[in-house]
Amino acid sequence: MKVQRCKGMRDMLPAEMDVFRPVEGICRDCCTGWGYREVRTPTIEYLYLFTSAGTLTPGRLGKVYSFLDWDGWSGERVVLRPDGTIPVARLYTESLPGRGPVRLFYAANIFIFEEAGEKTRERWQCGAELIGAGSAVADAELVALSLEVLKKLGLKGVELRLSHAGLIKALLVKLGLSHEEQDRLFDRILDGDAAALAGAGGKSAEVGNALKPLLGFKGKSAGFLRNQRALLVQDVPEIGPHIDDFLKTVALLDDLGCKYKIDIASGAGFEYYTGMIFQLFIGGEKVGGGGRYDALIPAMGGGDVPASGFALYIDRLMEMVKAEDIAPAVPERVTVKIKSGGAVKEAFRAAEGLRRAGYIAELDLNGEKAASRWTLEVGGETPYILSDSLKSRRFEVKTIGEVLKRLEGEGGDKDSPA
Fold first, then answer.
1. pLDDT in tens, 158-187
2. Where in the chain is the domain with CATH 3.40.50.800?
3. Virtual CA dihedral for 183, 187, 188, 191, nearest 10 degrees?
């Protein structure tokens, strides 16, 4: 039987890794430039981490990979992490409690069960979390950082959509529904279903119909939101504080020159969001998002600590970037051919000398035609023969030092485009 990878999981071949690493590297460089430090969390976490605090919407919980982790006669149900933020919040609560503000970032794979089809079940993300800062400036920092990453990846046509979880939840409380019904509607609204309120029954349906226009309004400036506030608080005064909170961040984004679209019925599928939510789209495809989650760390027993963060979807970014625009310079490659059995030791030494000088030195093991421009033959009548396939030239040299001079003199750059 021919072996196969698990359904929905992903292998990355060398050509794909040549794109993955630069994308990941740009994410890492941008995050470190803003003062964020990298962390790693386990692939497996306890299931209760995602259920006891109501951290994931019911729709997301139905897509986790869970199983029993047996320890002797008992077992604890665990999951393959379906999200990057929650494990980092757990890491902070467990290992860095009380410190703030703390800037952390990660690059990790997450696992979400999807029905058989084109969708992958293993996905890669790069995320940043700003823990211990509850201001609009912190929210604006994360939006600006995420946009900087996309800009440095050379991506254009980025659409930034803004919403506010506190505003949505205040509207749902106004419906007078049970907590379970509020969670269900919140889940649908976060998935972009502005008509979700139509499902409320009885008296709530009348209230829902009155509130639907509030979920449907869209704008592109803080001025628009201020004008809407004057109208909205007349019908639902409870949303006033949430609009004021939203306005602080939106006004900062205006000052920073960020273009955005306010779309209240737009979220990210996570119940833990409490404040501003943002999503990033390119050509209609979502490439990332984030928001404020001030209740998450308190729910984990970490104290009254505000936090916000975002994640960018590396898999989707890999499909959009132009590899030649982000590929770092790579060393020139030299194939080292062993011409006799007694020359193995010298060939290893020659290859080591090339590597110390900054070249890639690859030993020829099967005698096939070299794919690289340069070939160094070791062990013939002449100590070394350096061949240049690009210019069809051969040089007989006596020392590895002369080999290096020839490489540099003939255009054998140590660094060349990938």
1. 999 999 888 888 877 777 777 777 777 777
2. 330-416
3. 170
Task: For CATH 3.30.930.10, list the domain ranges present in the chain.
Answer: 14-325
In DSSP notation, 275-286 reads SEEEEEEETTEE
Superfamily of domain 330-416: Anticodon-binding domain (3.40.50.800)
Contact 177, 208 (CB under 8 A): no
Q: Strand 122-131 relative to strand 74-80: parallel, antiparallel, unpaired?
A: unpaired
Predicted pLDDT of residue 367: 77
Alpha carbon of 352 to those of 305, 361, 368, 373, 412: distances in Å?
53, 8, 22, 19, 17
Distance from C-alpha of 316 to C-alpha of 267, rounded to nearest angstrom: 19
- CA–CA separation, 172 and 255 (whole Å): 32
Angstrom CA distances, 125 to 55, 122, 305, 363, 408, stand at: 19, 10, 24, 36, 40
pLDDT tens readout for residues 246-274: 999 999 999 999 999 998 776 555 678 89
CA atoms within 13 A on the CB side of 300: 26
pTM of the entire predicted model: 0.87
The CATH class of the 14-325 domain is alpha beta
Q: Which two tokens stand for residue 297?
A: 């760390």
What DSSP character marks residue 379? S
Q: Which residues contact 264 (CB under 8 A, 6 or more apart)?
A: 163, 164, 167, 168, 214, 215, 216, 217, 218
User: Is the predicted pLDDT of residue 50 greater than 90, yes or no?
Assistant: no
Q: Which residues of 333-371 are buried (b: 16+ CB within 10 A; e: fewer)?
A: bbbbbbeeeebeebbeebbebbeebebbbeebeeeeebe
Residue whose C-alpha is closest to residue 271's, from 286, 291, 287? 291
Integer angstrom CA distances of residue 128 from 177, 184, 305: 35, 28, 16
